[in-house]
Amino acid sequence: MKYQSKATAVRWLMPVLLPAVFLAHPAFAQVRAKADVTCRQAGGPLEYDCIVKLINARSSEPLSGVSLTIGADMPSMPGVHHLRPAVAIEDQERGTYRAKLVLDMHGDWALQLNLSGPLRDRIVKVLRFEGGEVGEVKAGQGRKAHGH
Predict the structure, then answer these.
(1) What CA–CA distance (Å, rounded) separates 128 from 134?
(2) What is the DSSP secondary-structure string of 53-73?
(3) Is 18 inside a domain boundary?
(4) Is the model's pTM score more than 0.85?
(5) Does 142 reside within a domain?
(6) Fewer CB within 10 Å, N- or C-terminus of the chain?
(7) How many Cα atoms are found within 13 Å in the side-chain-facing hemisphere of 130?
């Protein structure tokens, strides 16, 4: 009798557990995005035109048709200097988005790229804005003090 009840339990659990095992496999996991961000000074001294190229992290195919907003915060002063998210507009080139950022000051800014729509993801890139020069801050590189 005990054997029969265990077999029944296994028969009932298999349709539930089997899909869970397959969905947990990395091949079935949600697509993740990678981003390349370039910004250049435009207009005023703290205005920047930014280009974001989004790709599928697995296939390296361009990610098109997502909604992208870009927020920014200064890591050296969290919550003090931050920007309202700017809406990025997709360019004619697939996976390429453009947005205008107006900063409070020069220094290191953590850009939060928020993707929504068919793909939901968040990517954080730290860029150093120094007048006309903008570059990515690599891991282990010291943060530059802000310049009030």
Answers:
(1) 6
(2) EEEETTT--B--S-EEEEEEE
(3) no
(4) no
(5) no
(6) N
(7) 9
Residue 144: inside a domain, yes or no? no
Tokens representing 13 are 């659990």
Question: pLDDT by residue (tens digit) across 49-107?
Answer: 999 999 999 999 999 999 999 999 999 887 777 788 999 999 999 999 999 999 999 99
| Domain membership of residue 114 as a residue range | 30-136
Dihedral sign, Cα of residue 135, residue 139, residue 142, residue 143: positive
Residue at token pair 């050296």: 76
Domain total of the chain: 1
CB-based burial, 75-86: b 16+ in 10 Å, e otherwise: eeeeeebbbeeb
User: If 0-12 CB within 10 Å is exposed, 13-18 middle and 19+ buried, where does residue 113 land?
Assistant: buried
* CATH value at residue 127: 2.60.40.10
DSSP letter string, 72-96 = EE-TTSTTTSEEEEEEEEE-SSTTE
Establish if 12 belongs to a structural domain: no
Residue 133 near residue 102, CB atoms below 8 Å: no
Alpha-carbon span 147 to 139, nearest angstrom: 21
Residue linked to tokens 């968040």: 122
**Token pair for residue 147?**
């310049």
